[in-house]
Amino acid sequence: MKPPPFHYHAPRTEAEALALLAELAPAEGRILAGGQSLVPAMALRVARPLHLIDINGLPGLDRLDVGDGHLRIGPLVRHAMIRRESVPGPLGALLDKVRGHIAHLPIRTRGTVCGSLANADPASEWCLVVATLGGEMTARSLRGERAIAAEDFFQGFMATALEPDELLAGLRLPLLADGTRWGFHEFSRRAGDYAQAASLVVMEVRDGVVLAARIGIGAVEDRPRRLPEAEALLIGRAPTAELLRQAAATARATLLPTDDDPTRPALAEAMIRRALADAAGIALP
Amino acid sequence: MSTRRIALTVNGTRHEAEAPVRQHLGDFLRGTLGLTGTHLGCEHGVCGACTVLLDGRAIRACLVLAVQAEDRAVTTVEGLAPSPEALHPLQAAFCANHGLQCGFCTPGMLTTLEEFLRDCPDPTEEEVRVAISGNLCRCTGYDSIVAATMEAARAMREAAA
């Protein structure tokens, strides 16, 4: 369980890191951030980068900034730094709840939010949050900087729109207006283990009627995504138990699971139903 | 294979040594520094036995490269006790409550719980169970580990009062 040999680079500035990445990406060079997925993948020999460019020594990358109605998460923000008190409004409570589902304490102190996005595991909670809320990623390279929307960023099983020479330089999430309702549920076989199915629902309800809804599913298909057919069912209607059940069933019917595990669709439907119920604030057995 | 000379502080003592760049911190602590209190189980981040404190935060020593600990402060199980004569309250409570059988998971349990109790000095049993959910005890002694942690938390609260 030791990583195969590689060359290690510890740049001191972002410019130096980008230059190293441009030079070494064609030679199997990769960024090392928190390393909580990459290092075990190397120990298991499923990843064999020849060069690691460690960005942990770069200053200023661990910032969480709030402004212009957005939360900006820098590339070295660890999972454990995402706390209710550091993010205003319902988004803070939502992210706080999601954080608790990511692995275990000693993984959360080291692993990074942006690292999870770049890794793009279909079961990643942060990837589900970004896909559901419509996050925007910033990619930076010697060639310049570009923004990538969530729907373009995730391109398949552990595949993203990042080019090999691009560093994921940050994530922007829209803050949620006060009164925005949400629910998050995931099923995993053991505490902290990979999700078998996870769902995030965000809803705006006024005068007893759903004005807007986002329903996201993760860990079921090859990437996280929203479920527009189920969302459309809710708009303009009262979020009753019957309607939520119907929306969850519709969601299930539109899923294309990547495996033929017979429990997967039922788990997905159950997680969506529970997330919907939490968002609507009703009990749904 | 490429190596680097690194300097770091471990349990309050400054060390300088050569480390192969692919060596993880756990092997460096055990093999190079001879601090065999940190145990290595799965070496891919699942079992929690190798948990140490890096600048006060619990991390997996198998998932951090030794070269990444350059200029950082590491605390291992050997560094938890306040003096050679005294035990850390968690260690004392583990002894008193049979919080260990074979002892393999114990260093990781103690370091994980040390950070946890700093953040959460008055936990519920449920919170303790969640905190150690990433630390596997194959003797399945979780009940006594939880009891020991609750007692240590009480002792630490009283000492701070």
Helix-strand layout with pairing:
The complex is a heterodimer of chains A (285) and B (161).
Chain A: E1 7-9, H1 14-24, E2 29-32, H2 38-43, E3 51-54, E4 64-67, E5 70-73, H3 89-99, H4 105-108, H5 113-119, H6 125-133, E6 136-141, E7 144-149, H7 150-153, E8 154-156, E9 159-160, E10 167-174, E11 181-187, E12 197-206, E13 209-218, E14 225-226, H8 228-234, H9 241-253, H10 264-280
Parallel strand pairs in A: 1-3, 2-3
Antiparallel strand pairs in A: 4-5, 5-10, 6-7, 6-10, 8-9, 11-12, 12-13, 13-14
Chain B: E1 3-10, E2 13-20, H1 25-32, E3 51-54, E4 57-60, E5 73-75, H2 89-96, H3 106-119, H4 125-131, H5 142-160
Parallel strand pairs in B: 1-5
Antiparallel strand pairs in B: 1-2, 3-4, 3-5
Helix pairs in contact in B: 2-5
Helical content class of chain B: 25-40%
Specify the biggest β-sheet of chain A: 5 strands, antiparallel
**Strand element count of chain B:** 5
Strand-pairing-aware structural class of chain B: alpha+beta
User: Quick one: overall form of chain B?
Assistant: globular
Order of neighbouring strands in the sheet with most strands of chain A: 4-5-10-6-7
The oligomeric state is: heterodimer
Instruction: Determine Rg of chain B (CA atoms, Å).
Output: 16 Å
GO molecular function (chain B): 2 iron, 2 sulfur cluster binding; metal ion binding; oxidoreductase activity
Keywords (chain B): 2Fe-2S, Iron, Iron-sulfur, Metal-binding, Oxidoreductase
Organism (chain B): Roseomonas indoligenes
Protein name (chain B): (2Fe-2S)-binding protein
Task: Considering the chains and any ligands shown, give keywords for the structure.
heterodimer; A: 285 residues; alpha+beta; Uridine Diphospho-n-acetylenolpyruvylglucosamine Reductase, domain 3; Enolase-like, domain 1; 3 domains; five-stranded antiparallel beta sheet; 14 strands; 26% strand; B: 161 residues; DNA polymerase, domain 1; 2 domains; 5 strands
